[in-house]
Amino acid sequence: MDLEQQLGNLRLADEHIARGRSLIEHQLETVHKLKLSGDDAESAIELLREMRVSLEAMMDHRAVIEETIEMIRVEKLP
């Protein structure tokens, strides 16, 4: 396992998480607009739920990357 590669993976995971949060915020606004206008928001709500599940998976994956980085760093200690 290469530390630099894992640090790159961590940066990429952070970018994906930030993008996921941004998309969730946008979807939440869409749900509110649909509800305010009296339109059916059920499919938008379901998509929001799925987006949150995906974000949670991304965050779990990020935690695994952090653990891997820590293991690499510990192995390199004298």
From TrEMBL:
It comes from the Bacteria. This is Uncharacterized protein.
